[in-house]
Amino acid sequence: MDHRLSPELEELRRTVEEFAHDVVAPKIGDFYERHEFPYEIVREMGRMGLFGLPFPEEYGGMGGDYLALGIALEELARVDSSVAITLEAGVSLGAMPLHLFGTDEQKREWLPRLCAGEILGAFGLTEPDGGSDAGATRTTARLDPDTNEWVINGTKCFITNSGTDITGLVTVTAVTGRKPDGKPRISSIIVPSGTPGFTVAAPYSKVGWNASDTRELSFADVRVPAANLLGEEGRGYAQFLRILDEGRIAIAALATGLAQGCVDESVKYAKERHAFGRPIGANQAIQFKIADMEMKAHTARLAWRDAASRLVAGEPFKKEAALAKLHSSTVAVDNARDATQIHGGYGFMNEYPVARMWRDSKILEIGEGTSEVQRMLIARELGLVG
Ligand SMILES: Cc1cc2nc3c(=O)[nH]c(=O)nc-3n(C[C@H](O)[C@H](O)[C@H](O)COP(=O)(O)OP(=O)(O)OC[C@H]3O[C@@H](n4cnc5c(N)ncnc54)[C@H](O)[C@@H]3O)c2cc1C
Which residue intervals define the domain Acyl-CoA dehydrogenase/oxidase C-terminal in the entry (predicted)? Predict the structure, then answer.
């Protein structure tokens, strides 16, 4: 299998690399410090077509695939993870459920604006009482036969892109009934922003991803038309498993970018910083550390591209996506720690990108399935059952 990029993907990579360096890098530190969503940068990403990368042209997309999305995410995260996660969540969690499971009407209504980055979509799965055990959803949706509307009640937490000025919809998972064995029937329902009874809390104060939007959402007798059901009633569990399998590849690409960004910054700093009369990079201890960091970023890249190639080819990719997510997030945390060490005291100062990378790395071992969940998935794929 050849993981070198086609000329088209290489051009995309270069374009996003340039954007990340010329537009994102000079501005993002201030947004991050102020915990502010970078609307102007996101608008520009929309104009570039990044939010439409893996979607068909008939809905305003770029006609690409998950490889293209991963390339863009990796290049953005080499410089900053807040903008990268805004894109990842906007595409993989916000728009992809509509693309995969929506009716033609739902796609026509939402996808063109989502692809253009004019609005952002969010995916509300996690609840205060549990994220890993997503089958334990407590949010409910009841179909009111008189009005033919879903009536939604419940709370979702940690939802990315859910409270920006340009958030257009949140797809929420809710229990819509019980199976004969008593297990919940979970369904996905589209809730447009601003629907009465749908409340968005203030942004969380987070350790990292400080220029991205994460909120708690409450639903108190929220009414949406029956036609807002996404796909079939009772298929929500299977839908979000698919969404998360694909999303893991995107997160793995993002984590690879962070790991590579740590190498970029460390090589630069090791040449500039002098101690004991010579650059710190002249010391083999530093050289070996950076060589290991490069090795880790490289293997993470191979892992996500392998999973993405399988997805694009229509082959099974569940195990490879979990392997890529587990490996790349571990590597991102390792590289962020080592890059900070190489930067000494300056590595602890927020004005240095590695400080931001350190703060942004930890969530990669938690979001879209923790490292423990990835190990559970891999073990299950190997035929080990508990
Ligand atoms: C910044 C941020 C953005 C997010 N964005 C979104 C979003 O857009 N949409 C969304 O739906 N969610 C989102 N999440 C939620 C995220 O996906 C969950 O936090 C994550 O899946 C873990 O769930 P939890 O926090 O409930 O932890 P828990 O499920 O409570 O897990 C706690 C710990 O127990 C471990 N654990 C649990 N079960 C087992 C087991 N069987 N064996 C071994 N260990 C176990 C976990 O690995 C973890 O270490 C976001 C979270 C954050 C922090």
Answer: 234-382
